[in-house]
Specification:
- Helix 1 packs across helix 3.
- This protein has two domains: 3-133, NADH Oxidase, CATH 3.40.109; 147-217, putative nitroreductase (tm1586), domain 2 (NADH Oxidase, 3-Layer(aba) Sandwich), CATH 3.40.109.30.
- Helix content is 31%, strand content 19%.
- It has 223 residues and is an alpha/beta fold.
- It has helices at residues 3-9, 23-40, 82-99, 160-170, 200-215, and strands spanning 45-47, 71-77, 103-107, 124-133, 151-153, 181-186, 189-194, 221-222.
- A four-stranded antiparallel beta sheet has the order 1-2-4-3.
């Protein structure tokens, strides 16, 4: 499965089967987490077989979760670009999980912090988690805004790579599907800007990763 295939097939899943993740898949995820942490200074961690963060007796703010026993913690140093970094590199893990046949969901608020199951330093912050496992379904497609409301270009007919990038960005998961971002093309430079709202900076990181996959990093530079 290519990354573009993963983008098209991946949907948010909140309900999971009581089925453990195989060790070979855990190894792949933990290797990628290690690479991300070494590259960026982030502190992602894979938490396995831990049911307390998503107690089934609790009602999530944006929908009920069930059967969640595994999740990735989105932890990093308290810097101004933390949220965008978490979004960008968290989506690397989300799409890799999809390629492995696993399901995921970005979660900002609807979980309980459980002490002792992950590490967090004094200068770090936990911004959310990504649930991961085998879903009871593959999730459902989300409605998306039209390309013209999410992008603009300095030419009447934008290049194909820009259109492909926008198409992939439109499929990026955003908080409550708000899609508050704008991609602007000027020459071979693309600017990505987040709108106002909660988690829009993290959303922007996810959007930028999707755009890069669709457009091809060799075709443009970020402005």
């Amino acid at each position: 499965m290519t990354l573009i295939d993963a983008i098209k097939e991946r949907h948010s899943v909140r309900s999971y089967l009581d089925k453990p993740i195989e060790q070979d898949k855990i190894d792949i995820l933990e290797k990628l987490i290690e690479e991300i942490n070494e590259e960026t200074g982030l502190h992602f961690q894979l938490v396995l077989d831990e049911p307390e963060a998503f107690d089934t007796s609790r009602t999530a703010r944006y929908g009920t979760f069930s059967g969640v026993r595994n999740y990735i913690t989105l932890i990093g140093p308290k810097t101004k670009d933390l949220e965008e970094l978490l979004g960008y590199h968290g989506e690397r893990l989300v799409l890799e999980a999809q390629r492995l046949g696993l399901n995921t969901c970005w979660v900002g608020l609807s979980y309980r912090k459980v002490l002792g199951v992950y590490e967090i330093e004094d200068d770090e912050k936990l911004m959310g988690v990504i649930t991961i496992g085998y879903g009871t379904s593959q999730g459902a497609k989300r409605k998306t805004r039209p390309p013209r409301s999410l992008s603009k270009a300095d030419v009447e007919e934008p290049p194909k790579w820009f259109k492909r990038g926008v198409e992939c960005a439109m499929l990026a998961p955003t908080a409550v599907n708000q899609q508050k971002f704008m991609l602007t093309l000027a020459g071979d430079t693309v600017t990505a800007k987040a709108g106002k709202g909660f988690y829009t900076k993290m959303d922007l990181g996810i959007v930028k990763y999707h755009f890069e996959i669709g457009a091809g990093k060799e075709n443009f530079m970020w402005g």
